Each structure stands twice: as structure tokens, then as C-alpha cells.
Amino acid sequence: MLQLLLMSKQSSSKQYYGGQAVIEGVMMRGRKTMAVAVRNPQAEIVIHEEALTAKIYTSKWGQWPFVRGLGMLWDALGLGMRALMWSAEVSAQEEGQEKVEFSGPVAWTTIAGSLAFAIVLFFLIPTFASRWMATYVNDNRWVDALFEGLIRLVLFLGYLKLIGRIPEIKRVFGYHGAEHKTINAYEAGATLTVPEVRKYSVQHTRCGTSFLLYVLVISIFLFAPLTFRGIEPAALALLLRFITRLLLVPVVAGIAYEILRFSTAHQNNPVMRALIAPGLALQKLTTREPDDDMLECAIAALKPVLVADGLLAPSVKVETPVKPLGAVAAPASS
Q1: I need a labelling partner for 183 at 20 to 30 A (CA). Which of 203, 208, 311, 327 fits?
Q2: Residue 70 has pLDDT above 90, yes or no
Q3: How far apart are the first and last CA of the chain?
């Protein structure tokens, strides 16, 4: 999940922007809308915008502490997956050929397969392996929880390292870097042009990669009391462990979001800088230095969001041919 939690002061309130690298493009989310900018095979930037209507964005309870972190999960599982599917359609659409669609059974099969893979790799394997290893070392709940967390962390790092070798994923990581540079430039008050945006870092303190690292660490402590030791048969205990971990994902996400929010708001504090440092280091696996085309896409995705939030004049032009695509808009979340 290549997402970015971003904050901008808007009058008396703080607005968090979310971003995500997609196939040959970038998705940006603001207060009112989301926008996806994707470069098609004809070298045009195709833009899709839609209003944010899901209750997690529009209701007051969606902004409550520990609840607002669920918006990050929804960004990944809701907006993020739809933006990813739409970007796949645009990036694969050759001029004059039949339209390529990743929808219906194809989309749901892809999503289901991806979720099943993630559950097996990051939940099932660590849960079963840690229980087996703990019995050979010290059958203690904290040893068990530590093994589980370490196994999950090693699998996560190995997964990022492995997929980073795939050429297509390297380009996605390049767009991730473009997303970070664009937001860093915006927050610094720089002009949103390619030469200016290029000057900024591919790392950002509120990146979703850092968020995932917090999730992995927090889960060690939260899952420790839930080893279900002593429950027979052993298969039932393992099943309960697995189910509770899935159910507690929103809780872990809520806590991780608040820690991320607090640490970045106080990043000048030496203790907070030390807390942020591992996440920034981890971003070296999920970002690449982008080319100019990638930066143009990221800028094109951010501008409509800023216009919708009243932070940018609608007359501002993007420095590359842009082709709006309202006709293929994905259905709004509900």
C-alpha cells in the first residue's frame, strides 16, 4: 500500500491529503474530491475526478481520534483499489483498439486474490510459525508475540525487496517518489512545476510505508495477550489467534495513525525524529527517483484536488496535454 498522509492548514482546521501511486500515474485525495492522473500509451495524461461521498469522509465521527485512521484503510481498500483498476484500464488502452476493462468478475477476482495472498502471507504464516517456534524456545506469550511480529516484519521487508525488482513495480515506486516530491513542494510553498518539484525529497514523514511499520510494531504488543495458550484443541487456539488478529486490524490502524499524526506534528523534537527515522529509511524500498513524465502526472493529480478545496485557482494550467475522462468514472463510495 503506497499511500501518503498529508496535512495542510486550511483556515482554522487541518486537512490531511492522501495519495497513492497507481499504474503509470498517481491518485490524490483532498477534503472534497479525489483525482487520478494516468499517462496513456499516447503519452497523454488522462484525469478522472470524483466527489468523496463515503461517510468516513463526510461525517463528524469520521474525524474522531482513533476512528479517522480507518480512512487510511478505506483509501487502500476502497479508493485505492478502484483507482488502481482504472489506471490499469487507461495505461493499457491503445489508440484504435478495443477498450480494456478491469471490472466485474475480473476486478473482483483480482481483489479477492490479492487480499487472500496478503492474509496468508502476513497473518496465517506468522501466526502458525510463531506458535511453533515459541514451543521450542520458551513457551511464553511475549516470546510468542515477539516471534510473530519479527516474522511478519521480515516477510514484509522481503516482500518489498522482492517486488522492487520487477520492472513494472519499479515504475510504480517511481510514481510514489513523484507523489512525495509534489506534496513536499506544495507544503513548502513552491510553484507546482516540474523543475521546482524535482528539487524536493522522495521521502515524506507521513508516508503510508511509515504507517505500515507502526502497524507492525504496535501489533506485537496488542496481540501479545491473545495467544490463547491453554485452550484445547490446539487447532482451536490457532484459529482464535488468527480471527482476533484480523478483527483487530482496524484498532491497530487507528492507534498507528494517531502515533503517526502526533510524531509528524512534533518532528522537530529529537525523540520524535528518532521515532520517524525508521519509517523514512524504509521508504528507500518503496520509492524511486521519478522522471519528468512521472512528476507531471503527480502535479496533474494534485491540482484538481487543490482547486476543489479552494486552495488553487481553477485557471491554473498543467504543463502537459491533459485529457479529462469523466465518462468512465468509477461509482462513488457509499
Answers
A1: 327
A2: no
A3: 22
How high does pLDDT run on average in the chain? 83
C-alpha span between 233 and 76 (Å, rounded): 36
Alpha helices in the chain (DSSP H): 55-58, 70-74, 80-92, 105-119, 125-137, 141-163, 167-187, 194-197, 208-223, 234-247, 249-265, 270-282, 292-308
pLDDT in tens, 274-291: 999 999 999 999 999 999
In DSSP terms, 24 is beta-bridged to: none
* Edge-to-edge order in the sheet of strand 3-10: 3-10, 13-22, 25-29, 33-39, 45-51, 322-324
pLDDT band at 58 (very low <50, low <70, confident <90, very high): confident
Q: Which residues contact 317 (CB under 8 A, 6 or more apart)?
A: none
Residues across the chain: 334
**Domain layout of the chain by residue ranges:** 3-324
Which residue matches cell numbers 485505492?
80
Q: What are residue 50's DSSP bridge partners?
A: 34
